[in-house]
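Can't attach files on this board, so I'm pasting raw text. These are the components:
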Amino acid sequence: MYCSSFNFISASRSMARAGLLCLVVLVLAVGAQALTPTHHLTASDVARLEARLGQPFTDLQSAYFSIVGRSKLGVTVADSDAACQFLKSNLDPTNIESLFYAADASQALSGCEIPVSNETRDLLMAAVSEDSTVSQIYQSVSALSSLGLPLASQEVVGALSARITKEDNVLGIIYALHTAARLSQQAELGGILEEIEDLAARLDDLGGLFLQFEEGLETTALFVSAAYSLSDHMDMEPPLKEDQVIQLVNSIFSKKSWETLAEAFSVASAAAALCNNRFHVPVIVTAQGPATVSHSHPVLQLQVTDVLCQPLSADVVVESASSVASKNVVLSKAPFALRDGVYELNFMESRPASGYYQFAVAVTGDSRLIANHVELKVKVSTEVAITNMDLSVVDKDQSIGTKTTRVDHPSKSKGSFMADSHQNFAMSFQLVDVNSGVELIPHQVFVRLHNQKTGQEVVFVAEPDSKNVYKFELDTADRKSEFDSMSGTYALYLMVGDATLQNPILWNLADVVLKFMDEEAPSAIQSKTLYIPKPEIQHLFREPEKRPSTVVSNTFTALVLSPLLLLLILWFKLGANFANLSLSPSTVLFHIGHAAMLGLMYVYWTYLDMFQTLKYLAIIGSLTFLAGNRMLAQKAVKRLEGK
Amino acid sequence: MSNSVISVVSRFLEEYTTSTTNKLKLVDAYLLYILLTGALQFLYCLLVGTFPFNSFLSGFISCVGAFILGVCLRIQINPQNKGDFLSVSPERAFADFLFAHTVLHLVVINFIG
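---
Top answer:
Structure tokens for the assembled complex are below.
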């Protein structure tokens, strides 16, 4: 039983090891696609940053940003005495913020001492407590350390930890990190160091390219400088992955002009932190000029710098260079040579064919370098020459070339060529690389015919056959429509172009006289009438239906009413019993009510709507009903009596 | 052939004039009037066209409806049909006739436009 459990443990351990191996391979595979910075500062951007920070300062805060910012960029202040004097005169010894700016700025200037009184010292030390905000603690601790005054690190740590739990905002924690970097290393800064990881988790990932706080660029830049300053102070690697650092680089250096001094200062601090820290130094690899090599310029030049465009000394090696089209590896493990701060490689020595090449460049030498595997696309361009250009006019029926003329570039054929509907005009040529003699298939090989008189031009594409010989044939009968059947002299041009060709060609080869049958007068050029205003469209409103004339309708109205007359006559003849009409009130009321209802119908037709009519009808109808009921009952009684 | 038709018609007319009561003849005259009115409306529509169609329909339906109601009234007050209408007295029939006409007129006036 003991043996079996032991076997089980060892089996599970080997499985775990296999699993771990898979995981490592996977991570390596993923890591091979590491990010490289897409946004970085160029030399002119760095100069602009320095100029932004170097503007004359108006108050203590701007003086602090300017002096300290420029010192981070490695630029010394021009007139340090005047600056020092400015600091001393604008200092307010009762204000912690003012003391902070003056103290830190004076630290950056050489030989600038701010006089400190006992009250100042007491004020600063009193500010270190749980009741002040984190920024106040930061400012007082920085002032104390810059002025060389003693400070109780453990007390500060305690106050900071208490404040961090109360104020959970990002900027506060960043200030706490900065403060901790100023304290003695003996203090327990581990708790504050862990805040870096928590803060990193609060960064927003934008499209996998950018990583920044929602508070903005300044906060992100301050975070970077704080994290690295504390990590350097404690000699512990910050918990930021390589990809995260590159994403932070993209975010911070995507903005190339800075509105406020505070923003410029934060960017300068972040840049300085990323160049000078002990753990992560992002590498920026850019080609000097366009990444193009050719016979005249065989050397590929690369600039390898840190984020502040300061050149790095490292080993730069091409891991592999492969053609984009054919995926053949042309170069492998070739080193770049350093010359005047630029890394050079003579790529043409490998005799590459023209086209695009994918370079995988590795920068090694310093273990701190990150983003040091870069992919570059390099273009190899060449010059093209046209050889064996033969022009001929071929008879359609016999297919015997009547005349083949060889033309050499760039001269023009002396005689012109005639082609009418019985003949085809043919052209064949080859395009070769001037340096290597290899046949080329450029992107654009066009044959253009230009009618000088009418300004008409027609462009055809020449295609290569299987032996890479270009052929073009013009069948005048077939292509009549393209030429609009305009006979005349056409100038023949050959156009050759490609992204990898240094000498695109436009060559007037010859004149071709084309004769078309059924020549029509050129149709009125449509384009002229295309842009004038078109005739106005009149809107036809719906015409009312045709009604018959008034005479007809009046006649028929009379006709339709005429049967009423007939009815009255008939009733009279039949002897309607009007004599029996009793004049009892119910009868009278009934008849009046009935007449009123009929009158209401007329009024409904002309004035009222259904609801009003129903209302009136209800009133009149009920009256009529009651009266009618009475009347009919009386009649019934009379009838039954009469029986 | 035509002889027999003429003789049938004349016999019918004779029977009609003698054996129908005055009351019924009054109603018949009314029915004839309605019929003529409807026929003339239809003739107008055929000649001139159906615009406006709703007016034509309402006029024509009014005639048709009135004719039907008149026929109902005639059936109900005919003393020879008394056996079929034991619960309906002639007065009741006339009251129904008037009520139905009210509804018909309401609809017709609504539709006439």
